[in-house]
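Lecture 7 notes: from sequence to structure.

We start with a single chain of 442 residues. Read the sequence below before looking at the structure.
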Amino acid sequence: MASPALNLWPQWLRISIVGAATAAAIGGGWFAYRHFARPVVLTVAAGSADGEALALISAISARLTASNSHVRLKVSDAGTSAKAAEMLAAHKVDLAVVRGDTGGLADARSVLLLTHGVVLIMTPSAASADSLGDLRNTTVGVIGGAINQPAVEALKQVYQFDRARVSFQDVAVNDAAAALASGKVHALLAVIPLTEKYLAKARQFFQQERAKGSAAKLIEIESAGAVANVAQYYESYDIPKGTLRGAPPVPSDDLTSLRVSYFLVANKAVSADAVTDLTQSLVDAKRDLLSQFPILAQAGAPSMDADALIPIHPGAATYYNGNQQSFLDKYDDKLYYASLLLGTLISVLVAGWRFARSGAAPESKLEPLYELGHEIRNAKSEGELEDIEKRIDDILKGELARSASESADSAEMAALGLAAHRLQYLMSHRRVLVRSTAASRQ
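Now the structure, written as tokens:
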């Protein structure tokens, strides 16, 4: 039953109020949905001398966008691995593509092992030395310069280059072949993944040497294990027979060298849930991009050992360990509270609908019945009482018809019944008084 005070409000006003409240609820729900459903954007820094790192991470970013991944990447060109690590340490980016021998990775946590770079020391096949310890009076050109200086410094800790008069000189990638042909350097040091694309570039350094009848030869780092012990970001690695050339094979047998890993890392402060979602998306993107970037065949899970060079991010570990939560597990609490909120919202809307229609609803018959009680008490004749009784019957008949056609309020019907019984008592009492008064007059 609507409050009399509310019935004083015009129906258009009640409808406007309910409409505005409904629009606000729908709008709030929409904005809440957009907030939770919108993608998480992480910034990633990448860079390398040949631009391949930037091209790879840009392709991955485009793939995540095309697949509507919950986590997206915004790529920043850092120029080098060292600069990418600096940007990560300074919290300018969330992720970075780095080489394991890059400094400043204290806050970095591994997400994906991208590939391995192998240390290749190449000389013309006419050179007499077969191992790094055999080199004498030699200048080694370091391709890439600063990025490969950690490898040079690690080698110097084990080998006595000063006594052997072995020196190192930085050379640009585009100048390496000319420096070798002119005799400015006698060997080249490069750190590259063992993929056909990079091996083809390595062979190009010796094009002019082939014209002289001398092809490329690989120099063995026979003390690679000792180097890895003093510089733990390197590990001893055997280059497979025939890696540089197939016929005749170069090297002619498996050859010991060093390798270093390339990682996609995240700052340790990045949300574990975001990294878990990102890791899953990266694994999916790897399959899609493998034909375009064969280097991704080497990508996989980083080491999860406690003493790993770069500790794994907890979010990535969750994915690789198969502990990723299902949708219901992950959002169980949110769904529970959302259901409560939805139930409350529905109740509010139903109440609002009743409020809006309260002006059009039939008025309660209790008030007219109460007024009839006053008329019964003042009735002077049997005729007046019969007229009142007829009106009571009409009211009760109408209410019974309404209760049959729609869901009536049980409390209101009970009150109506009590009022009818009360009026019946008043009617009987008044009829006795009217008859006694008429008899006394006679």
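The longest strand covers residues 108-124. Keep this in mind for problem set 3.
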